[in-house]
Structures are given as C-alpha cells and as structure tokens.
Amino acid sequence: MERRLRELDRLDEQFGLGEHQVHRPVGAPIPLPRGRRARKVRRERKARGPVVPGLLIVGLIMAGVFLVNPSDSGRRLRELVGFDGRLGELVGVPDGDGEYAFATTQPGDPDEPVSWNPCRPIRYVVNPAGAPDNWEDLLAGSITAISDATGFQFEDTGTSDERDFDDRIDGLNRPQPVLIGWADEEEVPRLAGNVAGLGGSTYLERQRHRTYVTGAITLDSELFAELAEERNGDALMQAIITHELGHVVGLDHVDDDNELMYADNVGQTELGPGDLEGLARLGSVDCA
Question: Where is this region: Disordered (predicted)?
C-alpha cells in the first residue's frame, strides 16, 4: 500500500492528478466583454475543481486493502469500524475440556485452522440415489447442528445426478458446491471395510492464507440401508452425516471416544465438548 501511495505522489507531481487540466487553443486570445470575462474566469475556476480524483484513487486502494487483508491488523481495523459481513451469529467458544483437531492449518501457524469464509454461504448439492427415504430430514438435522455450532450458513442448491466426489473444482478453477451423496465400495473403493462415510474439503491459497471453497461427502449406501431398518437407525445415520460434515467444515479425527469426531465412533450420536469447541473456533475466523 505504501508503494502505491508513493506512486500516486509521483504521478500527482508529474501530471497534477488533483486537478482537471484546462486546455486552451493556440493563438491570440479573443477579448471578452467585462461581464462575460468574469463569468469565463469563474467557469475556469470551477473546471479546475477540488482534488477529488486523486483522493478517490487513494480511497479505493485503502478500501481494497481494508477488505481483503487477512492479517490481525486488518481484522482489528474491520472490527474498529464495525465492518463484519458474516452471515450468521458469531458463536462463542465454549470452555470445555474435550478434544478436537483441525484437518489443516494455516502456513506457519499450527494453531490457526483452515476454514470457510463466514461471509459466504457454504453451497451444497445432493445426489439422493441410494439414500434412505428420509434423507432430507436427516441432512437437515445435521446441517442445523453444524450451523448452530459454527455460525456458518449453508445454501441448498438442489439435487443433482453428479457423482464426481473427488474433484469439485473445474478446469477454470471454479469451485463447485459441496456434493453429498451415497455410494457403495464398488464405485468408491475407500468405502470398503468399516468405513461408514467419507468427507473433506479443498482449499485455495491466496497471500499465504488458505480458505476452503468446496468439498464432498460420500456415504455408504449399503450401511444406510441396514441402519434404516434398525430401531435406533435414524440417530446413527444422522450422527454419521454430522461427523462427515464436521470433516467438511475443517475438523479431523480425535482419539477421545466421547467426541463425535472419534475415528471409530460406534455409539456417540451427539457433538461432544471438544467437537463444539473446535467447530466454534472454525466459525470464528475472519472473512476471507
């Protein structure tokens, strides 16, 4: 920013950015009557005007730096002037003694997580092929749980027949909505064994700051078909979806079996204290 301001000073000295140049024809001036001469002088003074163009350029540069600066100074400046475009309420970080872990952290700072932009909705699309009949209710419950814990807002972009669970950024580097769907191990070999689902996100990096922009959730269709017949099946299916959504927003597995993000979870159906703390920290990041 200092470099750009110095360049503006140089241009101002060379070209006079603070004024509109008044161009006059070459040759002898034509005398004007006294009254018209006075009006002519006033018009020329008005044409010269204030230093608006230069100030406008400086203001635009400062506004750009102000809006996109991901550093602590940028955050404090935005807070000072009350500029915060986050879509949801800022969730307070609970004082818990649970365990949580972030899937990815920022370059050079292992304590700062990679997360989503809280000033943009997390868009998602669903492929319901192979899903249980009540998949909409199950998904809505999980999204509500994650949204309440993070403050992130989710945007439903409808259903689709897409099945590209691995690459959600197209050839023009445009992120696609998070894809949520059901598959078997023949289609997605990583679902083999005791894997109930897969979830994760992809980030883009700008100015050494990473932000998640898309992701995918793949749920085991055969397991969900079995759980749909069990007495406590709905609670277990929703817990699996919430667990995978936890991965999508930025949480990793933990070793504490009291947390929903426990790697081998078989009975926990609610978010634990560590889950809630980690989710709140993911949602408290600055707008990217």
Answer: 23-44
